[in-house]
Amino acid sequence: MRTFDSYAFAVSLALISAANAWAQSGSFEVAQGGHTVGTASFNFSATSDGYDSTSLVRVAMQGLDYSLSKTEILSAANELKHVQLSATVNGSAVNVTAAPDSAQLLLNVSANGRSSTARLAEYPAAVFLPDFDPGALETLLALAVTRNNRDLWAIIPKQTGSEPGSVAPIELATYADEQGTQNGKPITVHHLVATIAGAKTDLFSGPENQLLQAELPQEGFVLVRKGFVLTPPAKPQAPAS
Fold it and tell me: Smallest Cα–Cα separation from 229: which of 182, 193, 194, 190?
């Protein structure tokens, strides 16, 4: 997977890229109530000073026709340098750009023929978090390692009052490991629960911290990496001490 150590990144970019190629990209199914309703994917490529990333999402179901294309530039420490998003929600187009600017985050949004701008509080460990985006959740897992699950923030590109977006803290709780299979082979599964603006997302990741599954705050929706099957626990798990 992507390295979390900027020093190691600088010393041996080629070695790291080769060793971690398996988790540089991922393809997922989007399901609701056990029925596949879409697909999602991400791809990360190493640059001389960080990462370029892309995410693609497509959901088509009764009541929701949603597509998303996102490109990001991240530092070697997985910190946001620039992001551009294009989405369509039930026929309405939305375009968003965001980048740090003068110790703040400058957010520009164009939707329904109107443009708006906001300056949000900037935090080093902030994840740009659109709906159904597995690339954003992969970045969150990377930041959680270097930040010891602390001081994490979500940039939410949704209208909040008069603002076109907001920033909210992310609280992470670590649960006991579970089990699953990836392409039929047994795999140990780490379990985190992220609470963002009061909503919970269950995150399941593999031994290399790669995103395997996410149970999303939208009711009944789940992202599942293709080829992955989570073994249900015998009973609900309590947070690890």
Answer: 182
For the chain, how long is the longest CA-to-CA vector? 51
38 neighbors 16 (Cβ within 8 angstroms): no
Q: Is 125 inside a domain boundary?
A: yes
**Tens digits of residue pLDDT in 68-114:** 999 999 999 999 999 999 999 999 999 999 999 989 999 999 988 88
Please indicate, yes or no, if residue 17 is contained in any of the structural domains: yes
HSE of 217 in the Cβ direction (CA atoms, 13 Å)? Answer: 14
DSSP state, 235?
S
Q: Which domain holds residue 147?
A: 6-170
Reference 29, options 217, 168, 223; nearest CA is 223
Specify if 223 maps to a domain.
no
CA atoms within 13 A on the CB side of 145: 19
Distance CA 210, CA 79 (A): 18
Percent of the chain with pLDDT over 90: 77
User: Looking at the 3D structure of the chain, how many domains does it have?
Assistant: 1
CA distance 211 to 26: 8
Note whether residue 180 is domain-resident.
no
CB-CB contact of 78 with 143 (8 Å): yes
